[in-house]
Amino acid sequence: MPAWLTALRDLIADASPLRRVMLAMLVVLPFVALGAAWFWFNPVEYRVLYPRLSDRAGGEVLVALEQLDIPYRLSADDGRIEVPAGSVHVARYRLAAQGLPRTDEAVRAEAEDSPRFGASSQQEQQRLQRALEAELARSVQTLEPVAFARVHLALPKVSPFLRDAPPATAAVLVRLKAGAALSAEQVATIQTLVAASVPRLARSDVQVFDPRGVQHSAAPAEAAESPRMALERELAQRVRAVLAPWLGEAGVTVQVTATLDDSETRRTVERVRNVTVGGHIRPLEKTVQTTVLPEGRLARLDAIVVLDFDASREVRLRATQLARQALGYSAARGDTLNVYVLPAARQAQALAEPPGGEAAAPVNPEPVTVPVSIPPLRAQEKVPAVDYRLLGALALLGIVLAGGALFARLRRRSATVPVDTADDFDALLDAAREQTLDNPRVTADVIKLWMRA
Fold it and tell me: For an engineered disulfide with 149, which of 140, 343, 415, 445 has Cβ 3.0 to 4.6 Å away?
């Protein structure tokens, strides 16, 4: 043994208890100082265990951390639970094994799923509605930019005394992730998802908000083609596809206007067959038939076909028949279809090819004075002033009234009269109108003959 160790041992053995304590402190204090300096310059890093917890869920997590012997501390700023950085994942896994943390919706759903005896129908309906809201919220949260979502449904009670059930509405509150934003297509997806899951809920009645109260809007109406516009475009293309190979692509213009029914209609017809037995009327058979007309059905169709060339009556009649077949024309539905010829085309042809092969007269001819000898009138003679326009209008009115009466009679007999007959009558009526407007003098002469007869 070295001499200095022997001298140190003899010093400690001969020292008093107080000196022994002082010698021990001289040995321990340097190590304590080094440890304190290490922890001072290298503090333990704490990280947030869960960013957002309710008071109830935070209390459950604190109790579980104490049972698991995991150190924690509460943030002085917002009271969030923090654990050492090296124990964050371990703490989360061990808490997840115990089913923590539980959201308020999960606790409420667990309480509602518990068996209840004596619950009313209204309570059961409310429980089903909350369950539907929770499922929709979970579906919305699956979108990439959404961190949290809540769905509120307003489902009015359906009454058998109301013809049309009141519509349902919905509000969706979404909280986005940091730096994320909802696009117009994603907003439309949320509205479609909620509307498709709830009866009597239209997509336009679903509103999407963020925690600041700002409403998110879907794609603008002009960017997305509405069902009505799509139907009109498709019907116009059908008519052009039928008429273009025959009349030419550039010679046909088609305009279609569709009227859609935006409400679902239920029609119930009850038929009771009665029989008389012993002077008393008794119901023998009762039949109830319910017809459901879906939302967005075609209520009426109005179409116009314009031909930019001088088409004959046969051509217009055939074009009318083809266009009706392409459109699915229905007179019972109140559809209308008119085929017109541009007046400019007729005028241009009349100027280019005048009747009799003579040269076309100028637009503004020079005035020509022609001497005309007019014989004197006798006092007894009176020249009747004939207003050909008035007579022509009267003739047109009479033709229209007669045609209307005949058309009404044909409609009443539509069950037995083919569609071609009604088409021919419409063509004849159009031809009569055109002849009356083109030749009012001839029409006036015909009216005068009728009056003399």
Answer: 140
Look at residue 227 in the predicted model and tell me its pLDDT: 81
Whether residue 140 is predicted with pLDDT greater than 60 in this model: the reply is: yes
Neighbours of 136 (CB within 10 A): 22
Q: Which residue has the tokens 């008093």?
A: 16
Q: How many CB atoms lie within 10 A of CB 65?
A: 20
Contacts of 279 (CB under 8 A, 6+ apart): none
Cα–Cα distances in angstroms (integers) from residue 420 to residues 254, 407, 410, in the given order:
22, 13, 12
What pairs with residue 82 in β-bridges?
48, 73
272 half-sphere exposure, CB direction, 13 A CA radius: 5
State which H helix or E strand residue 274 sits in: strand 265-277
- Give burial (CB, 10 Å; 0-12/13-18/19+) of 48: middle
Tell me the C-alpha distance between 208 and 225, whole Å.
Answer: 22
Longest dimension (CA), the chain: 177
- CA dist 427 and 137 (Å) reads 61
Q: Is 234 exposed, middle or buried (0-12, 13-18, 19+ CB in 10 A)?
A: exposed
CA distance 19 to 286: 117
Q: Is 263 helix (H, G, I), strand (E, B) or coil?
A: coil
pLDDT in tens, 165-215: 788 999 999 999 888 888 888 999 999 999 999 988 999 899 999 888 888
Separation of alpha carbons 324 and 45, rounded Å = 80
The pLDDT tens digits for 349-380 are: 544 544 444 333 333 333 333 333 334 434 33
User: Are 273 and 285 in contact, with CB atoms under 8 Å apart?
Assistant: yes
Whether the Cβ atoms of residue 159 and residue 200 lie closer than 8 Å to each other? no
pTM reported for the whole predicted model: 0.36
CA dihedral angle for residue 217, residue 222, residue 228, residue 233, rounded to 10 degrees:
-150
| Gap between the Cα atoms of 248 and 250, Å rounded | 6
- 119-128, 378-387, 437-446: which has the highest mean pLDDT? 119-128
- The letter for the amino acid at 377 is L
